[in-house]
Amino acid sequence: MYVKFDRDTCIGMFQCVAEWDGFERDENAGKAVLVDAEEEEEDIFVVEVPEDEEFEATFAARVCPVDAIEVYDDDGEQVV
């Protein structure tokens, strides 16, 4: 499972940070940061989710008010 995060879309509500340690606050930018992610394209970041954190990562995506977070299974099918 992996997470794709659109940092440009993020509005800095930080609900994802409260739900999963894979996100951190960037108070200076007013946006979340996807920890240890690789930039796939401009402002789009991707990271693999450890198996024991899949529930939290999925919940973080579900609570994002602007749908800046997408979750995909190992086959590339979008879960959230």
Automatic annotation (TrEMBL):
GO terms for molecular function: iron-sulfur cluster binding; metal ion binding. InterPro entries: Fe-S_cluster_ET. SUPFAM superfamilies: 4Fe-4S ferredoxins. The keyword Ligase does not apply. The keyword Iron-sulfur applies. Keywords: Electron transport, Iron, Iron-sulfur, Metal-binding, Transport. It comes from the Archaea. It holds the Pfam family Fer4_15. This is Ferredoxin.
